[in-house]
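sry for the spam today, last one i promise. struct tokens for design, 275 residues
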């Protein structure tokens, strides 16, 4: 890939995430091959008390609970990569994708905050304990909510997430499109909802940037998260953009579709790479 300015991937899941493959070093190797300037690891940290299996991190190939000690093992592995015996020749940051859930305990958020990660990507994946990324879960939600009500419920949780001070950026703003694209395409594509305006206002008010997440292309929905129309609307509303993320769950997904995305994001938000 050729970039005319430094480009980083700010949303990368190494094999510490329960649903990802690829070691830290394999990812760095791939990032160097692709010509990226920076790679930001964002291992999943799920805060939803209802999701037993997701409340885990992979340490030495085994599922372990998310605790300070286990998160430190992950941090140490990234530090080893940066300043160990065989440092990788690329900028690396150690972050997490921290699930926001309305019932998350302050003590849990404090535990993550106290670890001083380089980057904390906030994310909302659940409504009422159902995952917005799994079709059967979304079907279940549609027994209770209309499509528009479901999107509104999600947006309300995102608005709460904006209040969480430790987030550096918010992941995949319209993730409901992932399954909504198939189950309720018209409602999922609309951007004229009042609650969406309120969500953008809240992001601005809290100074929380959003990422441009290219994984929508990989998910077959034909656009990024947020969609280009919503990205445009967000820009007009003065929402900050926190960077580009591929949401890679394997090294060959790193920086997917960045050729187009970096041009548009860079032209639209020339300050996004300065921090
Ligand atoms: Zn996510
Ligand atoms: Zn992710």
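last one done:
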């Amino acid at each position: 890939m050729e970039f005319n300015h430094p480009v980083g991937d700010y949303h990368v899941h190494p094999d510490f995430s329960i649903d990802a493959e690829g070691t830290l070093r394999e990812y760095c190797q791939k990032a160097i091959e692709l010509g990226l300037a920076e790679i930001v690891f964002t291992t999943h940290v799920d805060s939803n008390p209802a999701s037993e299996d997701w409340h885990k991190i992979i340490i030495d190939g085994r599922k372990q609970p998310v605790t300070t000690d286990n998160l430190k093992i992950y941090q140490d592995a990234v530090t080893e990569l940066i300043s160990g015996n065989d440092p990788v020749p690329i900028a690396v940051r150690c972050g997490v994708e921290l699930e926001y859930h309305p019932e998350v305990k302050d003590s849990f958020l404090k535990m993550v905050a106290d670890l001083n990660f380089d980057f904390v990507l906030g994310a909302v994946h659940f409504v009422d304990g159902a995952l917005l990324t799994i079709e059967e879960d979304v079907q279940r939600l549609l027994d209770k909510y209309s499509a528009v009500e479901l999107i509104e419920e999600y947006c309300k949780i995102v608005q709460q997430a904006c209040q969480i001070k430790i987030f550096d950026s918010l992941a995949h703003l319209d993730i409901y499109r992932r399954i909504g694209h198939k189950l309720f395409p018209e409602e999922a594509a609309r951007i004229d909802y009042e609650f969406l305006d309120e969500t953008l206002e809240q992001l601005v008010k809290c100074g929380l940037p959003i990422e441009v997440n290219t994984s929508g292309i990989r998910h077959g929905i034909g656009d990024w998260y947020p969609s280009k129309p919503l990205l445009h609307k967000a820009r007009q509303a003065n929402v900050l953009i926190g960077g580009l993320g591929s949401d890679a769950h394997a090294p060959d997904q790193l920086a997917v579709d960045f050729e187009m995305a970096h041009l548009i994001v860079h032209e639209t938000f020339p300050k996004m790479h300065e921090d």
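The first strand starts at residue 8 and ends at 12. ok im logging off now
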